[in-house]
Amino acid sequence: MSNDDTAALTQAIERFYNAIRDKNAAAFEPLLTSDVSYGHSSGRMENKAQFIANVLDPKTQWKSIYGANQSNYFSGDTAISRHAMAGENARDGKPGTSNMPVMMVWQKQGGAWKLLARQAFKF
Length: 123
Known about the structure:
Blueprint: H1 3-22, H2 25-28, E1 32-39, E2 45-46, H3 48-56, E3 60-75, E4 78-91, E5 94-109, E6 112-120
Parallel strand pairs: 1-6
Antiparallel strand pairs: 1-2, 3-4, 4-5, 5-6
């Protein structure tokens, strides 16, 4: 893939995490496939509607959230990003941090990278 694809994917991941931080449901529309499969480190799986509803839940607030130490791999119109979902949050008012390994599968649709699948896991 080109440097343009690498930059576009990195920007899509940044917009994805910004949408989580900002609890901006509309910002997910250009970033998620209609049939996205979103896996949490607990094993819970969510579809698009469930994922967005979970992001909007006021129990968790993110001060910062980003993909650290990204490694991106491309195969045609598919990209795999491995990174750590890192940041500071508060759950039920209790401060916490995240540094969780994640694998995301992105698909290029209409010239834009969209999240097809995501799986987080615990060490």
